[in-house]
Structure formats: C-alpha cells, structure tokens
Amino acid sequence: MSHYALFNLTSNDNNNNDHNIGDNRNIPTTIYRCRAPIASLDCMEEFSAGSALSALADRQDGTITKEQLLLSGLSHSVPSAPLQLNRQTSVTPGLRYRNLGKSGLRVSNIGLGTWPTFSPSVTEEKAEQIIVLAVESGINLFDLSEAHSGTRAEVELGRILQRRGWKRTTYIVTTKIYWSTRSDERGLSRKHIIESVKASLMRLQLSYIDVVMVHKADPMCPMEEVVRAMHYVISQGWVMYWGTARWSTVEIMEAYTNCRQFNCVTPIVEQTEYHMFCREKSELYMPELYNKIGVGLMAWSPISMGMSQGKEDGAIQLFSRASFRNKYRSFSWNEDETGPLKDINYGWVKEKIQPDDTRRQGERMRELSVLADKLGCSITQLAIAWCLKNESVQSLLLGASTPEQLYDSIQSLQIVPKLNANVITEIERILENKPSRPPMVSTLALR
After folding, report:
1. Residue 176 in contact with residue 245, Cβ under 8 Å?
2. Distance from C-alpha of 61 to C-alpha of 173, rounded to nearest angstrom
3. CB–CB of 317/353 below 8 Å?
4. Whose CA is closest to 282, among 306, 299, 266?
5. Residues 6+ apart with CB under 8 A from 15
6. Could you give the CA distance from residue 219 to residue 187 in angstroms, rounded to a whole number?
7. What percentage of the chain has pLDDT greater than the value 70?
8. Tens digits of per-residue pLDDT, 242-275?
9. Which residues, other chains included, contact 85 with Cβ-Cβ below 8 Å and sequence gap of 6+?
10. I need a labelling partner for 38 at 20 to 30 A (CA). Which of 46, 61, 69, 215 fits?
11. Pairwise CA distance, residues 140 & 170, whole Å
12. 382 with 372: CB under 8 angstroms?
C-alpha cells in the first residue's frame, strides 16, 4: 500500500483570485494531482479496519455477508459462504507492521519465536494451537532456530503450514544457518551454507525462505566466501533476504563492506538479545547501523521467549546469568556449546550464578514488580512493553509453550502507551544501567 495520498488542487486559468467563495460563476480551472505523505499509515489501517469490523460485528447473528465485507473495503475477494467473525480475533490493539531494516519486507512488530513452541515437552496439537493463535492475532513472522530446537521446528512448522493452507504471501519464515564445534560441518563454508538452505527448504516444504540468518560469524572462513554464498542462494530464488544473528557490529560492517565490494546482496537485519539488563548493543550501536547501512533489529529476551514461565524467581535467575554479561566475547574453536534444548528448563542458558549480582538483580526485579502492579500488568508484560517502546526494535520475538502464555504476552501491546516519560524515568531509576558511549579521547591531548 502506498504511503502517499492523492489530492486535487484547482488553479484559476484567468489568475483571478479575488472572487468570493459563494460566487457561482463558472470559472475555468485546471486540476492538478499531487502526492502528499501520510503521517502514520499503520494507525489509519488499524482505525479503518477496526471501525468497520466493529460496525459489522454488531449484527445479532454475528455473520457478515460477501456484499457487506466488500462495501466495507476490508477485502477484494471473500468466500461465497457467510463469514463468522470472532470479536477476540479481530485487529489486535497495538499491533503494527514495519519494514525490516531498510528493505521493503513488512513484518509485525511482534513475531513468534518457535524455540519453546517446538520443545520436546510441547505436543504437536498444542504447538499448532499456538501457531494458529499467532496468525489470528495478526502475527506474520515465524522465527526458527536449529541451535535451540533442532530440526524438529522446521519439520513441524512445515506440516502446520501445509495443513492449514494459508497463502504464502501472508506469512514470513526466518530460519538460521547454524554451526558449532560439535556439528558435522564446521564453519560457514559455501558448501555448508548451500546444503543448509536446501535442507531447510525440504523440511519446511516451501519453495523459498523469506529470511535466512547466519548464526554467529566464522573467524576461520573468509567473509568474501560467506557473502558470495548468501548472494548465490538469493540469486537462485531459494531465499529472499539474509541477515545475521549474534554478530558484533564490526563483523556486520565487514560483511556489508564485502557485499559492496563484490556487488552482493547486503544483510537487512541482525537478531540480538535485548532486555532491561542487556542494552548496550541494541541502544547504542544498532540504531547507528540502521542509519548508515540499513541493517534492522530483531530482538529477543529470556522473558519475551517465555523462559521464566511468568515467575518472578525464574526471571531473577535468568537475568543474573553470567552469559548475559559475556554475550559478545570473541568466539574460538574451543568454545564449549550446549546442544539443542533437552527440557523445559532451558539448560543452554545455565551458567554459574554470581551471588552478589543475583541479590542486586533480585531487588531490582522486585521493584519492577511493584511498578508493574501499579500499571495493572505482570512483570513479564512490563518487560515486553519496555522492549517494544524502543523504536529501533522493528520486531520483538515472543515465545510460548501454551496458547495462554502467548495470549498474555500479546496483551503487552496495550501496556506500551502507558509507558510515558514518568514511567520510563522510574524504570531507569530502578535499573541504573542506561548505556552511554565512552567520552572521546583526543590523541593530541596526550602529547
């Protein structure tokens, strides 16, 4: 949909501008058509669709005929049978669609991270219920990760998509090229990238993948080989876009430079961890990358992925892991990585807990819990809304092992307007960790 509106401007051919408004004389005019930008297209879409749906849903029988739906401007083609409208699955308040990076790909501001959804403890029927709830709520982004849920997520999601028969243009699938010291194919060689993409296509039963992300950079493989391989899979039509996950800003800039040098497709998104206790990369450096080279931000956090199960104690422990402080250390071949998830306890984030840090983080979480009670929400919903308040986050991944958990997370969209300047100031007072750039040091002053 265009972001411009057409307006008709009239101009008097006789250059007579002193006639009265009520003058009924026939004055020859010339009509000009110009394009004027619309300030907030997402808000207009939600307002028009929501008002039309509400008016039609007020019928006593709860049905909408084809003629009424077409007259409302909500659809260009509908089935011949009457459509049953569920009030709870209409337009989700607060849901927006944004461009991913500086590409033309439009994604919902919340996506579904399928790592917990396809964990071993979740049945296929329950996983399908979660996927259906996400689609009915307006979520169009589904993120997969072989590192956390193995290949089962791609297989199960492919079956659900085929069984439901949704149009391919209505949803976006992102998956990752994962490698580790324990995998059969180490590194990001051209061979590994092409084979991984082909295997994902077979498991998903799709003709193409919307976005493929390279999970972790490979210091042992030339960056030129990586970008050329990603350009090749895009040129073949197997992939539409590519991005990165857990890359440093220096590595992302190196990839972009190589793409420009060798005339390859540039990455459009970086997927990184972002929450109240992990802020530096997302708040200081990712906005700069977006403005300079067009790389967007897709974020996730332990709470948004449902790993704390809505419990305060679980959230405190997850936020106090040492892994959150050492997230961006350099990788080496000796890194000992955990495999896919084995249970619901998410052992892949378990590391040694520092007692002092745990005590201080616990105090902060309790203060945040009190603030959440004042806002009429849970601490999980407050944490998700706080992430969505950052305009640099184009899509925040939510995770759930039950439909109820996903529903509660989606309600966080309604908390975002409540986070005014006073609330944000109170949160900053509690956290005491607002990132800031180090001061510039002049080498001339050292002489």
Report:
1. yes
2. 37
3. yes
4. 299
5. none
6. 8
7. 64
8. 999 999 999 999 999 999 999 999 999 999 999 9
9. 53, 56, 57, 62, 63, 64
10. 69
11. 7
12. yes
